[in-house]
Amino acid sequence: MSEKMVPLSIHELLSRMTKEYSRNNIAFTIHEGFKISRYNDWRKTYADSLGEKATANLTGEEKYLPIFGEKLEVPLGPAAGPHTQMAQNIISAYIGGARFFELKTVQVMDGEELAKCIARPCIKADDEGYNCEWSTELTVEQAYEEYVKAWCVCKVISVAFGLGDSDGFVFNMSVGYDLEGIRSEKIDRFIEGLKDASDRPIFTETKNALKEFYPEYTELIDDISPRICRSVTLSTLHGCPPDEIERIASYLIKEKGLNTFVKCNPTILGYETARALLDKTGFDYVAFDDHHFKEDLQWDDAAAMFRRLQALAQCKGLEFGVKLSNTFPVDVKNGELPADEMYMSGRALFHLTIEMARRFSEEFDGKLRISFSGGVSQYVVRYLFEAGIWPITVATTLLKPGGYSRLASLAYTLRNCDYQPFTKTDTQKIATLAERCLTHQYYQKPIKPQPSKKNDEPVPLFDCYTAPCQGGCPIHQDIPEYVRLVEQEKHKEALEVILQKNPLPFTTGLICSHRCMTKCTRAHNYLPIDIRGIKFIATCEGYDEVFENIKKPAPTGKKVAVIGAGAAGLSAAYFLARAGIQADVFEKSDKAGGIVTNVIPDFRISPYFVKWDIALIKRMGANIRLKTPAPSFAQLKADGYSAVVCGVGAYKARDPKVKGNVMNVIDFLKAYKNGSLDTFGIKHIAVIGGGNTAMDAARAAKRMEGVESVSIVYRRTKKYMPADEEELREALKDGVRFVELAAPAEQRDGKLTCTVMKLGEPDESGRRSPVATDETTELPADLVIAAIGEQVDNSLFAQNGIAPDEKGRVPFLSEIDGMKVYNIGDSLRGPSTVVECIADAQKAADDIIGEPFEITIPDDAYPSIFEAIESKRVIDPVVLTPIYSRCMSCNTVCENCVSVCPNRANAVVEMPDGRREILHIDRLCNECGNCRSFCPYASAPYLDKFTFFEDVESFDVSSQKGFLILDDHTVRVRLDEVMDIDLDKPNDLPKDVEVLILTVMKDVDLYR
Fold this sequence. Notes:
alpha/beta; six-stranded parallel sheet; six-stranded mixed sheet; 40 helices
């Protein structure tokens, strides 16, 4: 494919928009738009429950903020960037809730000349945003026409779609990067054309086209003002001298008569400040040196310059301010984008930008106007506005799932604030916000690198919706289904769904490692839904009824021995008993439950809940024989067992190679749990290791009477600890001290001596290797707990003639004298999670039974397409709080690639049978790559989805699967090969491909 974007003509633009709106009351797939009247109605409806404050700021629709002689319904919009590059982007933002538009920057270099300089892909916004693009990739004249079209269309749809006042939004042009270029004929024509478009053909053409599509609004269209922009934001390149910046701004104010913002770079803070802020908030991996800080505008120069420009603007009857901030230049270290340097945005940039705002507010006593963009979210937008900072623009948040629809919640929040003309910023409020966000969870990077939300499969050409949470779960639990049932308070049905794949619902509802939640799409909106907690609710509320309804299946006459009553063995017994197989569990200890019962502390899971899981397994028919070591495999075969399932755990201690008073972690936690631990004289405890068991031990030690300090000692840093993020945070919350980059050597006389380590190159695990230094350090330690991982004791297998492999592992399946022996859980994987044990148990049981269990899901567990789309809201529209609990129904509708595309280059095709399929539109795509980040598959929709090509040239330069319309019944299709197909005749196209093509051809205007 080509990265060249081809703008829609005004007729193509209006055809697509009006057809889509006539069908669904939406345009450009913006499902959640912003209407002032809708919000007022919501607040009035809920006034009784929300109180007087809910309606305190409802003054009807005549509520505006004055700026540059214009008025804003909401001081919010897209920053100069991908969301203001093309007309459909700007219109989409307006529908979403934007009312202040910072148009994408233009410069002398444009079009193909500039596009060739941009590496592709050029955007990566998985978390904080990165890009390696700059100004518009269109020609300056094309950009101008896009802005004029968008201006006129927004004027009309404001009324036609009932979105607001046709004069309630503002366009702000953005130009760069030097005075010579800005004074060139090309850029001068652009500036003058936005100041007054009355003599430009595109202005007349657009108005005439609007009259064709909206003849009932002819008077409104005739009255559209040709004065599109009264303000400008100046963008300059890094290293631009201060006198050049001042000359350009003075030119724009004096000679062009424009209200002017100067965009500042975060480098104005100085290297030390920027480094310290990012390090403090967990973004310490962001790499940059000090060269931009030395070359860019310095604080003293900026302060003096801005005072002069402020005075100049005042003399001219204009406004002057600063735009905070530009993106932040950082090094490409891990192949994030195909460039040497990239520009950072999003939540990491917020800390730098709000500190800039605080300093400027303090320097100018609040009298300098600040336009803000840099990591704005629902959590800060109101506080920014109340501190006198506006307009507010966003970019990175719009690149995430929800796209332009994410504007609505921000717009409603701002609309509910008190509106007052700008007088000054409030330095104290800005400082308070900056301080609070240093520790706000949203604005802090997680301690550990987050796993990818993608699965390992290529995206299918059709029916590509999938639930990432289910893919992330080792047992592929039907998560969206049981979550929806719980939302409907159908707890019995929800638990029945859970139990089909998971016989330990209480255990996994409390201590599951919840890999599913790391995959949850809702996490792109701050936090995932609490899948584990919802499972626990379903279990608590539905258990009694489900338990009573369980009937022991009719016996098949088959017997299977299960060795070990831990999570793996109990799960295998459940699955086998459910199939009518006699499952006898041999457990040598006096308690069932394994590690969960005997080792994991009660503050994580109470034995009360574990016993109910065990009761459920017994109810299904499993026989648990406590204090009964398993006979030999030969004896089991002689006793009529057709197979053996071994889930014997991993309890064998590793040698920590540390001298002194050292105790194995399993022994410590067992003694802690049963109350037999002797703590006399122990005041300081050090735990060696960085896994979840180490966290359990440290937290348990903190609860011991007489213990004054507990330290976790690890030879790498927290980032590289194998423990889950949640367990790390809980240990920190409990006051556990983390001693990083330390390798324990000896405990003696109440102290632990450690070798100081440093991080070297990454090893095969992807973690940086610990490298010893010549330094040592000491910390208080009367007792050292070794939590460095347990080994599998293979003696059971060895005694029965099964040898481990070269890595010391016994395979999943062996055979002894014709009897199958299965190895599952910890003894197969090494120390593993409960849910991984369940997965192994299910695999073994399925093999023994001969077929997988047939899963049945009630119809109520599935939402309609409309409900699935509605579930993707980011914010509760009434109380304006983030939605954490509502599943986004990715198993029914995904469409991430559609919502995250700034250009609307991924479209939904509604098939005749009701399915929604994704079509990629080649002409609108510039290969930014953003959809790759958010597709749940290991794919990039802009490269891998079925593509609609506009012309022969674009089809021929591509190798993607797709089609080109040749005439009203003939298409050129590329699947495995290129074929010209006459659709009026029999053909060999796959049915889905043919139906999709026919559906597109029937309403082709929807897909241009």
